[in-house]
Specification:
Helices cover 34% and strands 18% of the residues. With 319 residues, the protein is α/β, with parallel strands linked by helices. Helix 4 links the parallel strand 9 and strand 10. Helix 1 packs across helix 9, helix 3 packs across helix 6 and helix 4 runs parallel beside helix 5.
């Protein structure tokens, strides 16, 4: 285990926490999560205008860590402030476009569609996350017996829901269920289905009615343990809805073929098109044959190697 101290700092949003925590754990083995609040008027200003010393940042105090990973525009200000407060000793890594000069950080990990560029900016194919082979192996052991009656091939179905950019409406739900029925009819596959907190109740009910009394369909009722990691570990192929870049990114980090149910919308359209072009996913159309997708791809591991290189250059490489 490394003796490095690594903080994962965000304003608390789940997706951002996962990205920051995943990278910090990949670098140091253990991540100390911290949630910050940026007080007005600092929360309205670019990160480069960070207060000194930490006037507008609540939730952080010395001793400062060896590595600090932030994710999200507001937490970028905390990163800049800690860099100054630690006299530059803390290596600061920001995930996503900080919307400020990237030279304020030691490393920026952005995605191809982000406009930020610079010698200390790397572009990741997918979003970062905290999924590891070890976690998948543990989940497989936990869920193998429960999923055994579903048989093979086993299709893992991971469902999101409406966002500010996507409307997962009734028509989308009907089309999605029809494609799942087509796939099951043509392949005889078992289905392991997990909704997210954003999945509309109407869609959950629609899926439940469509596969009622089918012993080879498991639909998580959102009670008890979430089978999400178990599905990622044990499915023979994965179907994911396009509303979540994080869900798509975690799916392609597994060795399984990945298909994406395209909800349209402009925000993620370019990301999905790129993933298809790169051969990492295919559009879900209910085809009997699983797509031949390239994988696994884990951008967290790649970003962690870039951070470890900086540590090595400063004589603080993790054990």
């Amino acid at each position: 285990m490394s003796d490095l101290v690594a903080w994962a700092v965000t304003t608390g949003a789940t997706g951002m926490r996962t990205q920051a925590r995943g990278l910090a754990e990949a670098v140091a083995g253990v991540a100390i999560e911290k949630t910050v609040t940026i007080r007005p008027p600092w929360n309205l200003l670019p990160a480069a205008w960070a207060p000194f010393p930490l006037w507008g940042v609540e939730g952080l105090a010395p001793p400062w860590p060896d590595v600090m990973v932030t994710c999200g525009r507001k937490s970028a200000m905390a990163s800049v402030a800690v860099k100054h407060a630690s006299d530059g000793r803390t290596i600061t890594v920001h995930v996503q476009d900080p919307l400020t000069d990237p030279r304020a950080f030691d490393l920026v990990v952005a995605m191809p569609h982000d406009k930020v560029t610079g010698p200390n900016v790397i572009k990741a194919q997918t979003a970062l996350h905290d999924l590891t082979p070890e976690k998948l192996a543990q989940a497989a052991d936990k869920w193998r017996e429960r999923f055994a009656p579903l048989g093979h091939p086993l299709v893992g179905v991971i469902i999101g829901g409406p966002t500010r950019s996507y409307d997962f409406g009734a028509d989308d739900g009907v089309r999605f269920v029809e494609l799942l029925q087509k796939l099951k009819r043509e392949t005889g596959a078992g289905l392991a289905i997990t909704p997210s907190p954003r999945t509309p109740m109407a869609l959950r009910q629609l899926i439940g009615a469509a596969f009622a009394h089918d012993p080879r369909v498991y639909l998580w009722d959102r009670e008890g343990a979430n089978p999400y990691h178990g599905i990622l570990a044990l499915a023979d192929r994965l179907v994911v809805t396009s509303d979540s870049v994080s869900m798509m990114s975690e799916a392609v980090a597994t060795p399984h073929p990945v298909e994406v149910f395209d909800l349209g919308g402009e925000r993620h359209a370019g990301i999905l098109d790129r993933l298809i072009e790169e051969g990492l996913v295919a559009r879900f159309e209910g085809a009997a044959e699983p797509p031949k997708t390239k994988g696994p791809v884990n951008s967290t591991t790649i970003a962690a190697e870039a951070v470890k290189k900086i540590l090595a250059e400063r004589g603080a490489a993790p054990a």
